[in-house]
Each structure stands twice: as C-alpha cells, then as structure tokens.
Specification:
The chain has four domains: 149 residues, Immunoglobulin-like; 92 residues, Immunoglobulins (Immunoglobulin-like), CATH 2.60.40; 81 residues, Immunoglobulin-like (Sandwich), CATH 2.60.40.2700; 84 residues, Immunoglobulin-like. 6% of the residues lie in helices and 48% in strands. It has two helices and 39 strands. The longest helix is centred in the first third of the chain and has 19 residues. The protein is flat and about 110 Å long. It starts with a helix and ends with a strand. The N terminus is likely disordered.
C-alpha cells in the first residue's frame, strides 16, 4: 500500500499537471451512478484532512478518476478537488478505493472565493480515461456543514413547523362537514399528521402530500373542541416532529332526551340473553354498545346480547345512543354482574368400550353434552369406589377388579358454565 504522504504528493502533482486539462470542462455525457462514497472521518472541521472511499471499483476501460465537489459557494458545475489521476495509486479498501483529498474544505472554499461553508456538499468521483471526455460512471457521497467550521457525514435533523386551519371556523351545527387542514414547513418533509381533539387522537393518521394533510369529518360531538395537528416525520433522523397551535371550534346541536333510563333486563348468567331497555324522546335511531367492566366490547352493537364465558364474574352494562338530525345523546345503564352458567347437560350418555377382563384395556367414551364441552375429566370406580390414580380416559383392568363392576364418572367442563357429570353403565370384570 502506498504511504499517505507519498500518495498525497502524487495527487498534488496530478492536480498541478492535469488541472488545466480537467478544468477545461465537464465530461461530454452524463455518467451513470455506480455507487456511494464514504467520507472519513465521519465528522470533522473545515481544516480537517479528509478521504473518500468508493463502494466499488471503476468498470473497464476506465483507468483514471477525478473528484469534484458541488454545494453552496462552489460553481454549479462543480469544482475539481482531485485532478485526473491513475486509479492504481489509490489504496484498495474492500471492493473500492480510498481517495484522499489533496486539500481541506477551507482551502477549496478559498480557491472558489467564498468564506462561509454551509449545508450539503456533494462529492463525485468520476471514472474515466487519462484523455478524452468519455466517462464510465460516478460514485457520489455528501457531507453537511452544521456551522462554518464543522461538518458531519449524515444529514442534520431539520426542524419543522405545523399550522392548522379549520373550515367552517368558530362554530357549526352537528352534522356539518368540517375540514381540518394541516400545513407542514418545509413542504418537502415526508411524514403523517394525526389530528387531535384536545389530547385525544381524532381519525386515522393522514399522509402528508406537498406539505399538506387534511381530514373532513361530520362526527364532531356537541360541545367545545380544541383541535390540533401533530406532525410525525417519516424519518426522525432528517426532520423533527411538530404540533400546531390549538384552534377552537364549538359544535351546537339539539339532541334527543332520555324518557326511560337504560337498564339491562334478563337473567345475567352465562348462556342467557339480556336486553338493553331504554326510551328516547325525539330519536329517529337508537344505537347500542355493550360494555364489560366499563370497556367497549368490540362488535357488540345489537340491542340484545347472549352472555358468554368472557362475561362471567364481570360487570356488563349497555350504552344506548338516541340519534336524530340534531345530534346524539348517549347514556349508560347500571352494570349487572354475570353469574356462572348452568351445569352442562348430557345428551348422549358416556359409556365404557372394550373387553372387561383382567389385563385388557377399557376406554371411556365421554358422550355428548349441551352446550358442547371443552374438556373432560374421568374417575374410574370399582364397585362404586374411586380407583386411586385411574383418571384417564383409558384403564387396564387389574386382578383386584376381577369379579367386580367398573364404572366411569365423566365430568364435562366448559368455560363460564358449571360442570356437568354423568356415570357410565357398569361392566363386570372377569
């Protein structure tokens, strides 16, 4: 590997000898991008030495490279910072080359005639031959100056601002379409906007397009609202999030009134059907929502509900809503505690199959039950007394069984219901 000092001297010579040739103009054709450049060190100062490592090698028939830089202060077409030089003088790093810059960014700025380094500067390593204008691809990479003297190799986080407009403004009647429009600055910041009513999210996040996100709604509830727009960037490494100032909106309605308070009627136990009983004055539609321990039960929106095992021992209530064109009135019933359902009932009695003879295996069939059992337990009995350890669906008769009768008591179980039990007919062991 060529020592850095010698390599730098070679590059300086290349700039001096070939600079006039390279600076005559840009290559005649636009080259394809072959890969990326990695600046080293990743952070530094305007007077720091720097090198660029390509992500790959130049394709044939390229034998030389040159390096240029663009950005604030430099010519639009770029300024050459490493002259046309042989690829072979550069150390190979991985599948690419390490190309040291011959001077610092401060030196290049002075050459270009400006003093302030700011924003993004893009370097381009162009693959070419020693002579001619044909090029064979570029490697590109950038650094960002966060001050006049400090740079980093990752884009700095850019601050954003969010503003919100509400139309119509001030106050509306419930049911009127209200449009919330958020504007994000800078408009190029990608991300999404979540609209807030106070601190509560309203609707789903909306993707920002050209710096704008909007949501139209007719479902704002009666009362005063404090609406905001919250921007979440797609890449927090590039942009900050931001929240708009609150915009007040009052929704005015005439809602139905309750004439008979809601209550849950029926037997509150697993397997039973209960009804949400309520009366509204002036309602054209009545909607229902069932609650368990004060929380919404997803999908439970009928006026009746058959209680299931998930309700057992919990408090169930209903939340009816009276609706008309003027608005919605929602009330919640007192809760009832759901008891365990009745014991499972046998439909087809359990039975013992197999040969009732010492040394033979017998099998207990569980039978069928209503409602359907989820699991069973078994107790084998000899002459009506439980046999120690005989609690599986199968049992092999032993000498102690000879001359005695065997039965099996099957217990059927289902979550939320009391257990059911039934005993098979007896068989005599020979």
């Amino acid at each position: 590997m060529t020592p850095r000092k010698t390599l730098a001297a070679l590059l300086t010579g290349a700039v001096g000898v070939l600079g006039g040739l390279v600076l005559l103009g840009a290559p005649a054709a636009q080259a394809d991008t072959l890969g990326t450049l990695t600046p080293s060190p990743a952070t530094g100062a305007d007077i720091s030495p720097m090198s660029l490592t390509t992500s790959g090698s130049c394709p044939e028939p390229a034998t030389h490279i040159l390096v240029s830089v663009t950005g604030a202060g430099f010519p639009a077409e770029g300024q050459n910072v490493v002259g046309n030089s042989e690829i072979g003088i550069y150390p190979v790093v991985g599948s690419g080359y390490e190309v040291p810059l011959t001077e610092t960014m401060r030196d290049y700025a002075n050459t270009a005639g400006f003093k302030t380094l700011e924003g993004r500067y893009e370097f381009t390593v162009t693959c070419r031959k020693a002579f001619g204008t044909a090029t064979y691809g570029d490697f590109k990479g950038s650094i960002w100056f966060t001050s006049n003297t400090a740079y980093q190799s990752t884009a700095p986080v850019q601050a954003t601002t969010t503003s919100l407009t509400v139309a119509p403004a001030g106050s509306v009647t419930q049911g009127t379409s209200v449009k919330l429009t958020a504007k994000i600055t800078p408009s190029t910041a990608p991300g999404s906007v979540r609209f807030l009513d106070g601190t509560t999210p309203y609707g789903s996040p909306v993707t920002v397009s050209n710096g704008t996100a909007s949501l139209s709604t007719t479902t704002l509830a009666v009362g005063a609202h404090s609406l905001k727009a919250q921007f979440t960037p797609a890449n927090p490494a590039n942009h900050t999030g931001s929240v708009s100032a609150a915009v007040p909106l009052t929704v005015k309605v005439r809602a139905p009134s309750v004439t008979t308070a809601p209550k849950v009627t029926g037997t509150a136990k697993v397997g039973s059907k209960v009804t949400c009983a309520v009366k509204f004055s002036g309602a054209t539609t009545v909607r229902h929502q069932w609650l368990r321990d004060g929380k919404v039960i997803t999908g439970a929106t009928a006026s009746t509900r058959t209680l299931d095992s998930t309700d057992r021992t919990h408090k169930v209530s209903c939340r009816p809503s009276g609706v008309n064109t003027g608005g919605t009135t929602t009330v919640t019933s007192p809760a009832v505690t759901v008891a365990t359902g009745p014991a499972l009932k046998v439909k087809t009695a359990p039975a013992i199959s197999g040969t009732a003879k010492v040394g033979k295996k017998l099998t207990a069939k569980a039978g069928t039950w209503t409602p359907a059992a989820q699991s069973y337990t078994y107790v084998w009995k000899r002459a009506g007394k439980a046999i120690s350890g005989a609690t599986k669906s199968t049992y092999t008769a032993v000498k102690a069984d000879k001359g005695h009768t065997l039965t099996v008591t099957v217990t059927a179980k289902r979550s939320g219901y009391a257990n059911g039990a039934a005993t098979t007919k007896s068989v005599k062991v020979t």
